[in-house]
Design a protein that fits this description.
By secondary structure, the protein is of the alpha+beta class. It contains ten helices and 27 strands.
């Protein structure tokens, strides 16, 4: 990495609206101004040309960045550069180590990207998720990709307003995590669950096979998280500071409410179920914005981009938070799909007609998998056999 003085020059340019305007919308007056700056400050010359040439290659509009936005971008620039250095995987640019300017290119491209010619503001969350390989344990990824493994089937992760974090009551020391707007990631593998309390007081229950990306400290005018999997949220209300939940397909905007979101990548139906308050849902493929009210569900089909809102019994969708499934005429194949995630197992189904078998009742998840399967076999026509890690489900 470059020296701290070079870093400061880079940040000064990032904060300078005249510099961005010169790169994106040059005029003779701006050309003359920056040529004078370069002539009067030889040390600034390389920084200016590095950033100017790099940004000019991107098809972006001038971003209207708030102070929080700039801090977030700059913090991620520094984290990415440190990570690249530590992993010894830095890309080469004209024979030298990757500069802060090069890291800036990738991050700015992620923050202001184009889709069909239209700017889509946001962070490239999926790239962040793909960078970290799950360990099989619940994992908390802090600043600089520092990973804390939690060797329990369930845990309680709590942030205070300053960004300090406790896991099951034990404070985790991480100096990098105290910096504003540091993005963290929580990984909950199949067979495990956890709860997460953010610094604003928002409580999130995280189901098996889920991953969340969120800042250790929220900005003053916006709270935003990204996830895959399934979560239940009790969002702390804050006037003039909306809470945004992003998935790969949907953006859910709330101010203070309780709701469940299911967005597993391997499932065709993603859903938002509202318990209290109101939420607004929009997405890249949705026609307009959907407002949802208590005891309603928005269903979104990822394959066809079809969406619709219906009235539901919310208990059927949030009961997993309390350790059971409340089933009302649920298809057996979908029940088995949920059990695969919750118990981290794989079923092999033998026979036909599974899509015509329906299950109702309260299915306890706190016991063993075998006791759960016993209940289902009594209530339906299926039987099962367990041979070590192989579980066969048979339609009698």
């Amino acid at each position: 990495m470059k020296s701290s003085n070079s870093d400061n020059r880079m940040r000064s340019l990032l904060d300078n609206g005249l510099f961005l305007r010169w790169v994106l919308e040059p005029t003779p007056e701006l050309d003359a101004f920056w040529m004078r700056e370069i002539a009067e400050n030889e040390e600034l010359k390389n920084s200016i040309y590095d950033l100017k040439n790099s940004i000019a290659k991107l098809k972006i509009e001038e971003p209207a960045l708030s102070a929080d936005d700039r801090n977030l971008i700059w913090e991620n620039i520094r984290q990415a550069a440190e990570t690249a250095k530590d992993a010894k995987k830095s890309h080469r640019i004209t024979g030298r180590r990757m500069s802060v300017a090069a890291v800036f290119i990738g991050l700015l491209a992620g923050v202001y990207i184009y889709s069909n010619g239209n700017r889509q503001p946001g962070i490239d969350y999926m790239s962040m998720i793909d960078e970290v390989t799950p360990s099989g344990n619940i994992s908390l990824v802090l600043a600089g990709n520092e990973v804390v493994d939690i060797r329990k089937d369930t845990s309680n992760v709590v942030y205070d307003p300053a960004g300090k974090v406790k896991i099951n009551g034990e404070t985790i020391e991480s100096t990098g995590n105290e910096k504003p707007a540091t993005l963290n990631q929580l990984i909950v593998p199949y067979g495990k669950t956890t709860s997460l309390t953010l610094g604003d007081g928002t409580k999130i229950w995280v189901n098996s096979g889920s991953r969340l990306v969120y800042p250790s400290v929220f900005g003053k005018d916006r709270r935003e998280i990204f996830f895959t999997g399934e979560i239940y949220l009790d969002v702390a209300g804050k006037d003039h500071c909306p809470f945004i939940v992003k998935t790969g397909y949907l953006d859910i905007s709330v101010k203070g409410t309780q709701f469940n979101v299911s967005a597993y990548p391997d499932e065709e139906i993603h859903s938002v179920v509202l318990v209290s308050g109101t939420v607004s849902v929009k997405g890249k493929a949705l026609d307009g914005t959907y407002d949802i009210y208590p005891n309603q569900m928005l269903s979104y089909e990822t394959g066809s981009d079809n969406a619709g809102v219906s009235d539901v019994d919310v208990n059927s969708y949030i009961s997993w938070v309390h350790g059971y499934l409340m089933l009302q005429d649920e298809r057996i194949d979908r029940v088995l799909q949920k059990l695969e995630k919750y118990f981290n197992v794989s079923f092999t189904c033998r026979g036909a007609g599974f899509d015509k078998i329906y299950v109702s009742g309260k299915l306890d998840l706190t016991g063993s998998l075998e006791s759960t399967l016993n209940y289902i076999s009594v209530a339906t026509s299926i039987s099962y056999t367990i041979n070590n890690d192989s579980i066969e489900i048979i339609n009698k």
